[in-house]
């Protein structure tokens, strides 16, 4: 038997084994995909009814990072039973004045919204483990790409409504160079998820929190994965609103798709800032948190069958 023939036969055997292997792998993939499909297309009985999920999560605690969607308040107040004493369907400057956030949470929410905690001052941190444990399972909120978030923070300088004692002083301050500012703000979502945010109660947005570590980010991401009843993404606002109602019930309202506090006219989180402004900066601490939020969001989008097609009944109210 020639060497050439032996080589050819060996190649043929190898090719046949590869084909059989590929077919076996395809079978495995098909089985896994079928199993996953069966898991993700759970019935209402398996997932629980929306009103049951909402009741289990009440009173909702809104975890609100700066520049991560003030407008989400209009989804919270429109959930059935969350604010039964509220006549408003929309909270914004036209209904409650330029300081509508503080006005709502201090003057309106306590007497009207039994299904949510009236969290004020805004942007509160979750604190130590005891504080977090008391809120675990009741947390709802949206997250944002950390580099886009810090750019939004930077561009919002001087555009605040002036609702706090330090607002005038802050708005009249000279804005620092971007990299200096970004370094101060780095790890902000991680900080808020794991610490008590003193900047919201006593100081200005330039008060420096202690630098966040990879261990802080790890704990923050764990809280996102385990402690939140709902996780949305500002970059996927429409799908997030649809998912919110799929999970907790109620009808979508046009007000939920409006940006009630844009940084500038026509700007919202669906339009990215120019990343060249970052000049090489990257918030690798908050990236860990955002990755966790992205994972939770994607899993729930699949679990609750949320897509552009399935959400058309919800989206139909936009602009109406």
Overall description:
The protein has 320 residues and is mainly alpha-helical. It folds into two domains: 40 residues; 271 residues, no CATH class. The N terminus is likely disordered. It comes from Symbiodinium natans. Keywords: Signal. This is Sulfotransferase domain-containing protein.
Q: What structural category arises from helix and sheet content? A: mainly alpha
Going across the biggest sheet, name each strand in turn: 1-2-3
Count of DSSP H/I helices: 15
What is the mean predicted local confidence, pLDDT? 82
**Ends apart, CA distance between termini:** 81 Å
Instruction: List SSEs in N-to-C order.
Output: HHHEHHHHEHHHHHEHHH
Helical fraction? 40-55%
The tally of beta strands, per DSSP, is 3
Overall 3D form? globular
Low-pLDDT ranges:
1-43, 198-204
Radius of gyration: 24 Å
* Domains, number: 2
- Strand residue percentage: under 5%
**Biggest β-sheet, characterized?**
3 strands, parallel
Keywords: Signal
InterPro entries: P-loop_NTPase
Signal peptide: 1-22
Protein name: Sulfotransferase domain-containing protein
What key attributes describe this structure?
4% strand; mainly alpha; 3 strands
Would you kindly provide a brief summary of this structure?
The protein is mainly alpha-helical.
Task: Provide the fold topology.
Layout: H1 3-40, H2 44-47, H3 50-57, E1 61-62, H4 73-76, H5 93-96, H6 100-112, H7 129-135, E2 139-143, H8 146-155, H9 167-171, H10 178-185, H11 188-194, H12 214-227, E3 228-233, H13 237-248, H14 284-303, H15 312-315
Signal peptide: 1-22
Protein name: Sulfotransferase domain-containing protein
Keywords: Signal
